[in-house]
């Protein structure tokens, strides 16, 4: 498989209530690297093994949640071609000039049927992962991998309306594939869609909610399930509020722990899961096995996991 088109979730912009607390959480404790603070006081982070300048943007305001998410696409021609297809699908496209977002080339932006603001961009300044590109070795200097030992931004789960329409948009316009979905056992209604543009089991997912434009969680990739347990040790040490302790998803088969940032935004650290290829039929779960689908080590559905969104 030659990975072209949409490459990956490249940026998530999270609203926080108190930047000092957020900095302690995302930087000091989780171990993301702060790379910049802009003139508006927004703070930018990268995980160690990402090459682009940043993947997380924090903005202090009076309401938690997510401002927007952005996917990086392969090149400018991809951006132009996707713009045409987005317009043909019926969504309005807004142009954002290069440099409006720091270290970033031009972007296009649209509002999805679920109410979320999505951006696409082809260029962002690359600062590397500290190892270099010639004879890089395998191991960065002491302190580069730290905190929860996060390798990279992995995916996000967003809550909103019209998620079937979102799935149609991602599969027909952006060439994603639906790896898995969760449906209501009785009505057959779609409750969650898992969408992949890569060999990951999901790059983005949408859960049906009565309200548009909600944020369920942002997820960070760790090396192994063992590292999820080590992150859980740190989460306990620092008294970080936990939503769901270490477990394994039936959906994606990833090892997971969910916790909250000081503003109440849910975070996840995630590892493993299967390799996805786009010729794999969509896996369907229904609510008769909701516990197993979501938390397969104890098969218990947590009310907070379904109900708390920012
Ligand atoms: Fe997740």
Fold topology:
Elements: E1 6-16, H1 19-29, E2 33-37, E3 43-46, E4 56-60, E5 65-73, H2 76-89, E6 94-96, E7 107-111, E8 117-121, E9 152-160, H3 163-172, E10 177-183, E11 190-196, E12 204-208, E13 214-221, H4 225-237, E14 242-248, E15 254-260, E16 266-272, E17 283-286, H5 290-294, H6 303-307
Parallel strand pairs: 1-4, 5-8, 9-12, 10-17, 13-16
Antiparallel strand pairs: 1-5, 2-3, 3-4, 6-7, 7-8, 9-13, 10-11, 11-12, 14-15, 15-16
The structure holds fe (ii) ion.
Total count of strands: 17
Q: What's the helical proportion of residues?
A: 10-25%
Structural class based on helices, strands and sheet pairing: alpha/beta
**What is the C-level CATH assignment of the largest domain?**
Alpha Beta
- The secondary-structure element order is EHEEEEHEEEEHEEEEHEEEEHH
Query: Over all CA atoms, what is the radius of gyration?
Result: 19 Å
Return the domain count: 2
Tell me the CATH superfamily of the largest domain. 2,3-Dihydroxybiphenyl 1,2-Dioxygenase, domain 1
Give an overview in words.
With 310 residues, the chain is of the alpha/beta class. The chain contains 6 helices and 17 strands. The mean pLDDT is 97. It is globular and about 50 Å long. The chain has 2 domains: 6-121, 2,3-Dihydroxybiphenyl 1,2-Dioxygenase, domain 1 (Roll); 152-307, Roll (2,3-Dihydroxybiphenyl 1,2-Dioxygenase, domain 1). Helix content is 19%, strand content 35%. The structure holds fe (ii) ion (FE2). Residues 155, 157, 217, 219, 268, 270 line the site of fe (ii) ion.
């Amino acid at each position: 498989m030659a990975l072209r088109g949409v490459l990956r979730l490249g940026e998530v912009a999270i609203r926080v209530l108190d930047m000092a607390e957020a900095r302690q959480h995302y930087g000091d404790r989780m171990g993301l690297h702060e790379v910049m603070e802009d003139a508006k006081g927004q703070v930018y982070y990268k995980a160690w093994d990402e090459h682009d300048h940043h993947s997380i943007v924090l903005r202090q305001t009076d309401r938690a949640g997510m401002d927007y998410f952005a996917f990086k696409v392969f090149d400018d021609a991809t951006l132009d071609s996707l713009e045409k297809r987005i317009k043909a699908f019926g969504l309005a496209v807004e142009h954002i000039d290069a440099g409006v977002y720091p270290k970033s080339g031009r972007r296009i932006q649209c509002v999805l049927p679920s109410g979320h603001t999505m951006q696409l961009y082809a260029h962002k300044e690359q600062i590397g992962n500290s190892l270099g590109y010639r004879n890089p070795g395998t191991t960065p200097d002491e302190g580069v991998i730290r905190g929860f030992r996060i390798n990279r931004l992995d995916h996000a789960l967003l809550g909103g309306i019209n998620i079937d329409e979102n799935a149609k948009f991602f599969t027909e316009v952006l060439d994603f594939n639906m790896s898995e979905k969760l449906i209501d056992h009785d009505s057959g209604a779609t409750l969650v869609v898992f969408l992949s543009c890569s060999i990951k089991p999901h790059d983005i997912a949408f859960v049906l909610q009565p309200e548009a434009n909600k944020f369920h969680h942002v997820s960070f990739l760790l090396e192994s399930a063992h590292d999820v347990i080590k992150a859980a040790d740190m989460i306990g040490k620092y008294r970080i509020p936990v939503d769901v302790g270490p477990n394994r998803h039936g959906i994606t088969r990833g090892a997971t722990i969910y916790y909250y940032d000081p503003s109440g935004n849910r975070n996840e650290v995630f590892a493993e899961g299967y390799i996805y290829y786009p010729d794999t039929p969509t896996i369907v779960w229904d609510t008769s096995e909701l516990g197993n689908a979501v938390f397969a080590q104890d098969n218990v559905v947590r009310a907070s996991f379904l109900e708390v969104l920012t």
